[in-house]
Amino acid sequence: NYLSANVFSFWDSFKVRFDKSGKLIIPYFTYRNKAQGVGSKNKIPKLDIRSIHNKVLYSTISEYTVSLSKQGDKAIYAYPGKQGQLVFAEYSDYRGYNNVLFSGAEFADYTENDYVVYRDNYMLRIADQRGNVIRTARVDKLFTYAYAGNDNNYAVLACQDSSGVVSFSRNTVKTFNGRLVGYNFDARRLVTMIPEDEGKSGNKLVLWDFKGDSLKSFSAVPGIESVTFNVMGNSILAKCIKGENVNYQFLYVLDGNLDVTATLFLTPNDTYGFSGNGRYYYYVRDNSACVFKNTYSINATNINTIYDWLNIQRNISGDNYRKNVDSLLGKYRISRFRTERFKF
Questions:
Q1: Which residue has the higher pLDDT, 65 or 281?
Q2: Residue 32 pLDDT > 80, yes or no?
Q3: pLDDT score recorded for residue 215
């Protein structure tokens, strides 16, 4: 719930996904036979592995979000075991459908190199692909999710109103102010979102190193409303609060150092996000979708920048420039709101 409501959830959710070989991974709910009503007590969480032709290859109870590995060739799920403990198991193409990893854990997911990070009571552990525990640290802090990098030296914790960094070598946990937005294990940095200073609305972003030092912050008037992070692109989309007496909101594209690489305008109901690999970002308005390369830099608040971009398009399109623009505007019933005009 934390990830889907606040930040990002690319690998870990209840979404239907394909694995690397093209099989369908389908988490879903069914209901008990002769159930009286459709309340939560009568729901049964299940997991199906199906062929591309919808043939059920494997079906099991799964009382946990299904985590797909970064390579897409295996998935973790969990089912009830003895004395109410969860049994975490793994499905993979080369090992089959029900390979028990461990029991009694409260959380499990894949690391960036497809090892497994999990919490067992107050201990956060990392196990290699054979199931051998290679890192352990005590974590008294309650967290919603944990992420671990390729070198298995650190883990980043997402908590309800704060964040944390676990050092396995020092067996320590450092707490950071603000909800987790993103992280970069190679640079040993993370970004959190905290409320703006007193007298200001919305939120701001803060860049930290793993030692706990604040390196930089990003604020925008009239405050940040929501953010999306892409771990592969190490990039952030930050949407601002709608100002008074206007019908648009700023959308900032930020790199991992909180430097602005692009600025666009959105309307309140627009949807935005990154492609899975972080190479593109997009927004959707009504029946129209706009997609940009993440290397593309534009500042839609600067009219000279817009004119320069339009001139490039004019040179490319030649005499058909005006005709093409008007045709697209008419086709998608788009007004000449400046973001919509800019995208052509």
A1: 281
A2: no
A3: 97
| Rounded distance between C-alpha atoms, residue 320 and residue 313, angstroms | 10
Given a contact cutoff of 8 angstroms between Cβ atoms, the answer to whether 28 and 48 are in contact is yes
Which pTM value belongs to this model? 0.78
Tens digits of residue pLDDT in 107-165: 899 999 999 999 988 999 999 888 899 999 999 888 888 999 999 999 999 998 899 99
Please give the Cα distance from 164 to 225 (Å, whole number): 22
